[in-house]
UniProtKB/TrEMBL annotation:
Its cofactor is Mg(2+). Keywords: Hydrolase, Magnesium, Metal-binding. The lineage of its organism: Archaea, Methanobacteriati, Methanobacteriota, Thermococci, Thermococcales. GO terms for molecular function: metal ion binding; phosphatase activity. Belongs to the HAD-like hydrolase superfamily. This is Phosphoglycolate phosphatase. Gene3D superfamilies: 1.10.150.520, HAD superfamily/HAD-like.
Length: 229
């Protein structure tokens, strides 16, 4: 099982560029309260929001703007959305080790299931754009199941896709979703320290690694151990 955002691609980085690009737009539109919201990092309050992890980008942006303003004009929102979408995708890319990681796993006949938060539209667009869709034997998206990765539901779904596989790994960047969920279904959990959650303490990770090359080494090592046993 593998996570997408900040594990395989630079979502947080692309998101940061997008936020920076929003500044002049918000200034021009005299949306000072929204600027203040971003500058004081109040968006951190959204980290634990289950809703945030299943919503489409337009709904999300609307929710955030409605937190700041009681009323938001439709055309203001659409203009922002267009800017966000364009800036985000022009900055989104796979991490340099992502393709190698996926290809090497294919070579050892691993079944790959993507378990990812966010909306269907947004995540499928990312997969299309990054050109990695065909690597996966299964794709589980929170927007489609109605459950965020804060609860084990999606990991159970992934697990049930291949009930005969007794060697399971979860590779992701977030401890309280990816690692916790992986643990809940008996996976060996590998935390890749990148992106927004890089500085957080890991409670549920069996291994903490700096990139996907190291994650792959862990998997190969564990795999050999089992082969010998
Ligand atoms: Mg992630």
């Amino acid at each position: 099982m593998v996570d997408l955002d900040d594990t395989l691609c630079n979502t947080w980085e692309a998101g940061k560029y997008t936020i920076i690009r929003l500044f002049p737009h918000l200034l021009r539109k005299r949306k000072f309260k929204a600027l203040f919201y971003i500058l004081t990092a109040r968006y951190r309050e959204l980290e634990q929001s289950r809703e945030l992890l299943v919503l489409d980008l337009d709904k999300l942006l609307q929710r955030i703007m409605e937190r700041v303003y009681s009323r938001v004009k439709r055309e203001d929102l659409e203009e922002m959305l267009e800017l966000v979408d364009r800036t985000f995708f022009s900055n989104l890319k796979l991490f340099p080790d992502a393709k190698y990681f996926l290809e090497e796993l294919k070579k050892i006949n691993a079944k790959l299931v993507l378990v990812t938060d966010s909306s269907t539209y947004w995540q499928r667009k990312k997969l299309e754009y990054l050109g990695i869709k065909d690597y996966f034997d299964g794709i589980i998206i929170s927007g489609e199941t109605g459950h965020s990765k804060l609860d084990p539901h999606n990991f159970l779904l992934a697990r049930r896709m291949f009930p005969n596989e007794d060697e399971v790994y979860m590779v992701g960047d977030r401890d309280d979703t990816d690692m916790k969920g992986g643990k809940a279904v008996g996976a060996i959990t590998i935390l890749v320290k990148r992106g927004y959650f890089k500085g957080k303490r890991a409670k549920y990770a069996d291994y903490v690694v700096k990139d996907l090359i190291e994650a792959l080494e862990v998997i190969k090592r564990e795999h050999e151990k089992r082969d010998k046993a």
